[in-house]
Specification:
heterodimer, A: 465 residues, alpha+beta, PmbA/TldD fold, five-stranded mixed barrel, 22% helix, B: alpha+beta, seven-stranded antiparallel beta sheet, 12 helices, 35% strand
């Protein structure tokens, strides 16, 4: 840790008579390679360097960011931002107490991203590309992304965390075409760690899977739009839990608006439903989940939070300010994308688990008897105020008499969150592949890594197409 | 250190980078730097979340070993600049030689001028706050609740130099205001309205707030309905190119020159084909100086131009940068974008193909006629799920909200209307274009009626509808409404 710099910045901030301040000094490294049809279309390497300063003064925040060398200007800007916030302040911001932490840690990397050359990384995307080759695949895209986040978090309360955490993600997007029919599908794998990712999930496997989804989808007939009983796989479990229900449980929204406002302690889902956000989700086969955090960006330990227990809304997700507002403890969900953003409440690894009566996948299919099995959720959009959602689905299979039958073309599903939470009739506890469902959640113009492939769930009915 | 001295530092850093690139083995180099002060104002319900920042950084593109490499840094240390150039060169050298690669563009002068309001550079934070405050009306109509408001003011400069002698120093400044209100008449709905300008004082915060209120009142008390079939659909200007949930973002993707060059769009090799009705003309016009996304040069220093992409329904060209124009044996029409004022730090990626300002020529029907000539159909204004559309075929399946039309009349607002189809079919199916157009932040477009589109919707379950009725009753007796 650059202690002199940290001490200088904090000393300068203290002159401003603040109640509290935190600084984040970042010097992260990022590489992204995107190949299309075995040609590097875009490759980007960069150093993200800067300082973000957040002050709490007279019960209002002030945040500013800029180049590290300009920290005295940035402090002045944070004070200006604080004055602007004071003008519009309606209520006093207080912070829940937390344990002061001093820590210095590095994320595990069996194969360090620094030890692998740029050419090898390009080669990986080419391998992903080659695996997608087929006369019907008209466009093959492969995307590799690695980030080594090097951050110092220091607060006027004494917290000092210096960390270096890597993440790696590799994906393939295949576009198949026949006549006037075109279909686009993808496959992605990612984790918190180094290049050992490709020893666990080979680039060829990722390319193959994207291709197979595109070719099978192209052959498959279209499903008639309508409302059907469904079983959703672990990726859609995560997508629904995160997008539809999770965002509404973020306390910065829930304290003011949204479908979960005022519903703490009330039944909002079927009694079989538990919904969990787990920032320290247990490793599976040594794979660290994409949404895992040791500490959040206020220095609070990442933790397992039951948002819904037995169908009842047990907690919102909090940062220190909303925890104080609700008179509870922070849940370790205050996160940022980079130094140039202020902390906001975000999820980590989010999913639905059985509160009671766990069922295996076969039992879930038998439960709906006739309907559809929807797999490989991709992309999602939600209106947490109105409680509506719309997700992409990569694989669709008919379920006939409890058996998986004919495959259909990729489609979308749409619904109302509270209605769907109450229509969940069965849940499997079998956690899914930790490498998939790795995404970047967008909120307030920031994106942070999230994940949480869980078990399959059966829903009485939902709109498909 | 002042913002001015930061600009001097950036210019020096770019020169250092250009010189070092040559020494380090790059045959060509392009250096870009940005220094922009940004005020972000935001109030969500009762909470102000204003912040101020300096967006800064350097980006280098190099040609080495006949291949292109890119790297960026937000550190100005000489060692980091050299390291960044080395990364860009390494990046290029690990790629295959590209026979289509040409040196970066040379300077072509433009006679166009962008008039910038100097006040945007010297405005004080409290003056910005004063303008922003005026967004917040004291009295709101019954059942209309303030949700959030946002303001943005950016002023700064960018530098673009390359080894072909191009040396551009551009200033850019603008501001924007927006506000969202929620209606608790029946099922909760909200709407947002935002405007942008390059001239301080041109935006009237009160009008923006009142426009939002009238928009949300127009959508208040929406119904859900059970329908499945093909219906005529009128897409509003917000629905096609608005800032929130616009469907025609898919069309912009389908018309990108890089996708056309790879055969990755249904419009590849279709120049000269009739792809839309004869009264449909789509233009990208970066020189529309009243729009805040206007620009004199694109992201690689090519002068921008007004480009007719579709004229009288015939595909004329694609959105092109210099590289893909070369691949398609065409000329660049200056559509390389680097983001900028309204879209994040522009140094973090190389220039990419995109649109600046979308214009659709007006048609000859009035909006009133479009509605009165619709026996049964919908007018839709915003959509969810657009990003999941197939950007090659233009296939989409989105959920929208708007109004139900019956016997030539707008009957009532609706929500959860699922719309599916493809953009090529939708374009061909446009049978009416309005005379009236609406100006958005980066567009000016009319209402478009599509003769028939696949519409599916399902009425909310009885339990939910019943719950809303009970909630309404309870709120009358003082029970807090969770939606507000």
């Amino acid at each position: 840790m650059n202690e002199d710099l940290v001490n200088n910045v904090l000393k300068s901030i203290e002159k401003e008579k603040v109640t509290y301040a935190d600084i984040r000094i970042e010097n992260s490294l990022m590489t992204q390679i995107r190949t299309v049809n075995k040609k590097v279309e875009r490759s980007t390497t960069g150093i993200e360097s800067g300082i973000g300063i957040r002050i709490l003064k007279e019960g209002a925040w002030g945040f500013a960011f800029g180049p590290i060398d300009n920290f005295t200007d940035i402090i002045k800007m944070a004070v200006q931002a604080n004055k602007l916030n004071l003008k519009h302040k309606k209520e006093e911001i207080k912070l829940a107490e937390i344990k002061i932490v001093e820590d210095d840690f590095e994320g595990k990397q069996k194969k360090k991203i620094d030890d692998v050359g740029f050419d090898e990384k390009i080669q990986m995307t080419f391998e992903t590309d080659k695996a997608q080759e087929d006369e019907k695949i008209k466009s093959r895209t492969s995307v590799y992304r690695e980030v080594l986040k090097n951050v110092i978090l220091a607060t006027t309360e004494g917290t000092r965390i210096n960390y270096s955490v890597p993440y790696v993600r590799l994906g393939a997007i295949s576009v198949a075409r026949e006549g006037n029919e075109t279909i686009e599908t993808y496959c992605i794998a990612g984790h918190l760690g180094g290049l050992e990712l490709i020893d666990i999930r080979a680039p060829q496997e990722i390319g193959d899977k994207a291709k197979e989804r595109a070719l099978e989808g192209l052959k498959a007939p279209k499903l008639k739009n309508g409302r059907y009983p469904v079983v959703l796989d672990g990726t859609i479990n995560h997508l629904f839990a995160h997008e539809a229900a999770g965002h509404s449980a973020e306390a910065d929204l829930a304290k003011n608006a949204g479908i979960l406002k005022g519903k703490l302690g009330k039944r909002i889902a079927h009694p079989k439903v538990d919904m969990i956000d787990d920032g320290r989700l247990k490793e599976v086969d040594n794979i660290v989940h994409f949404g895992n955090i040791k500490y959040d960006d206020e220095g609070v330990l990442g933790q397992r939070n039951h948002i819904i227990r037995n169908g009842i809304l047990e907690t919102y997700l909090h940062d220190r300010a909303t925890a104080a507002y609700f008179g509870t403890k922070p849940t370790g969900n205050s996160r940022v994308e980079a130094y140039n953003y202020p902390q906001i409440i975000r999820m980590t690894n989010t999913f639905i688990a059985p509160a009671e009566d766990p069922m295996n996948h076969e039992e879930l299919l038998e439960l709906i008897k006739n309907g559809y099995l929807l797999m490989q959720g991709g992309g999602g959009q939600v209106s947490p105020i109105e409680g509506t959602f719309n997700f992409g689905v990569g694989e669709v299979y008919e379920v006939k008499n409890g058996e998986i039958g004919q495959r259909y073309r990729p489609t979308t599903l749409a619904g109302n969150t509270l209605e769907t939470l109450n229509k969940i009739i069965g849940i499997s506890p079998e956690m899914g592949d930790p490498l998939v469902s790795t995404g970047f959640c967008g909120k307030g113009s920031q994106s942070v890594p999230v994940a949480g492939t869980a078990g399959w769930i059966a829903v009485k009915d939902i709109v498909i197409g | 250190m002042s913002e001015n001295s930061l600009s001097i530092k950036i210019e020096k850093a770019l020169e250092t980078g250009l010189k070092y690139a040559k020494k380090a083995g790059a045959s060509h180099c392009e250096a870009y730097g940005v220094n922009e002060k940004a005020y972000n104002l935001e109030i969500e319900k009762k909470e102000p979340k204003h912040n101020i920042g300096i967006m800064h950084g350097l980006a280098f593109r190099v040609i080495a070993n006949d291949a292109l490499g890119f790297a960026y840094t937000s550190s100005f240390q000489e060692n980091d600049i050299k390291h960044t150039i080395n990364l860009a060169i390494q990046n290029a050298k690990t790629q295959k030689k590209d026979p289509d690669l040409k040196p970066f563009p040379e300077l072509k002068e433009t006679k166009e001028k962008l008039s910038l309001d100097k006040k945007l550079y010297s405005i004080k934070p409290e003056e910005i706050a004063e303008i922003f405050e005026k967004l917040h009306l004291e009295k709101l109509p019954k059942n209309i609740h303030f949700l959030f408001s946002f303001g943005f003011l950016g002023s700064g400069e960018s530098f673009l130099k390359n080894s072909q002698g191009l040396d551009l120093h551009e200033k850019d400044a603008g501001y924007g205001l927006g506000i969202g209100y929620l209606s608790s008449h029946g099922y909760p709905v909200y709407d947002i309205h935002a405007e942008g300008s390059r001239k301080l004082g041109e935006l009237d915060p009160e009008i923006i707030a009142k426009t939002t209120i009238s928009k949300v009142l127009e959508s208040a008390k929406p119904k859900t309905m059970s329908v499945a079939g093909e219906y005529p659909v009128i897409i509003t200007p917000e629905g096609s190119y608005g800032a929130f949930g616009a469907l025609f973002g898919v069309l912009t993707n389908l018309l990108r020159g890089d996708k056309a060059s790879r055969g990755d769009t249904v419009y590849a090799d279709r120049i000269g084909d009739q792809i839309a009705p004869e009264n449909f003309t789509l233009i990208d016009d970066p020189l529309r100086k009243d729009l805040v996304t206007s620009a004199l040069y694109d992201g690689e220093g090519v002068p921008t131009q007004r480009t007719k992409l579709i004229e009288k329904g015939v595909l004329q060209t694609y959105y092109l940068d210099s590289y893909y124009a070369g691949k398609l044996n065409m000329e660049s029409n200056g559509k390389a974008t680097r983001g900028g004022l309204f879209s994040g730090n522009p140094v973090k990626g190389p220039p990419r193909i995109g649109s600046f300002a979308t214009i659709i020529e007006p048609g000859d029907s009035s909006v009133e006629e479009m509605i009165s000539e619709t026996k049964e159909g919908f007018m839709l204004k915003s959509f969810m799920g657009i990003h999941m559309s197939d950007m090659s075929s233009g296939r989409f399946a989105v959920t929208g909200s708007g109004w139900y039309i019956k016997n030539g009349e707008k009957r009532y607002p609706v929500q959860d209307i699922s719309l599916s189809g493809t953009i090529p079919d939708l374009l061909k199916g446009i049978d009416m274009i309005s005379k009236e157009r609406k100006k958005g932040i980066n567009n000016e477009v009319p209402y478009l009626r599509v003769e028939k589109l696949n519409v599916t919707a399902k009425k909310l379950d009885f339990k939910v509808r019943f719950g809303i009725k009970i909630l309404k009753l309870l709120t009358k007796f003082g029970y807090p409404n969770p939606y507000t």
